[in-house]
Specification:
145 residues; mainly alpha; 4 helices
Length: 145
Amino acid sequence: MAHDRGPFFRSERGDDGGDDRPRRWSRRPPQDDDGRIDLSDPVARDRHNRRALLGAGLGIAIAFLIASIMPQPLVMAAFREILFFGSMGVGLISAFRREPILAAPVFTGWDRAAIMMLVAQISGAFIDHEAVEAYLQQVQDTGRF
């Protein structure tokens, strides 16, 4: 019996009997009957955690990339605000997905939001408020950025 479940699934040729479940590619985590990720396998947990940390790191990197186009005195302030609102968005998506906040076996969206919020709060300590105020006063006086 041929299975048409998409590009991530494959089955051996000539294997019509026995187990009805097709073999899976190694880049897709194993799933249970409901389609959820089977996290009983430690390799699947590690892969999921690695992807979650990579996603948080990429979110922080993109926030810094966007903030870096601001004028020099505003870079850290913009970085902090972008990360703050980004972490709120990730938390909101986690709430919509009903991910567990505590006692989850893997990193969830709540953990990614907490990492982003922590980096935002730490980066807030490096904002030079006097330089930001002086730059904003200069912009207000001259009308040019």
